Amino acid sequence: QTFTMGKKCRAALASAQEALSGKSYQEALTLYQAFAGDCKTKDAKELAAVGMAEAYNGMGMHDEAIAQADAALKVTKDASLNAHFQKGVALNAKGDVTGSQQELARVMELTENNQNAAQRASNYALMAALYDRQMGQMDSALVYLNKAKELDPGNVKYTLQEGDMYLVHE
Prior knowledge:
Number of helices: 9
Radius of gyration: 15 Å
């Protein structure tokens, strides 16, 4: 994906993503809110909303997560895999298993419709990372990661991702 953001916005996004990866959800939320205030491209709006949705999910604020996921879906005309995933996580946490399954089915539909094998592999790797990081479901994560490796066998990032997953779960 090509991002239409300047250097300052990319740096702000990297800081927010780092806080999110470190499970510093409140800090990540604050950084994403600042990022959203400063960076106004379509890409930035989607990334900010998805990041805030993940931070809210991490804090157990699932209604807010759904609102942010819906904002990202509005910006992308229902095409954001990450937004559908975050909404699915929030719905699952709220006990709406059917709604969650529908969101995750949409993620898979968007992935399967992509004719670019490398991009499809990247989407599967993303699903693997999200399943592992947010849902703690390593078995499901490995299924998606194996699909990524099948589609793009020369991409060493997927082997490294798998190694990282095993390190975290030991």
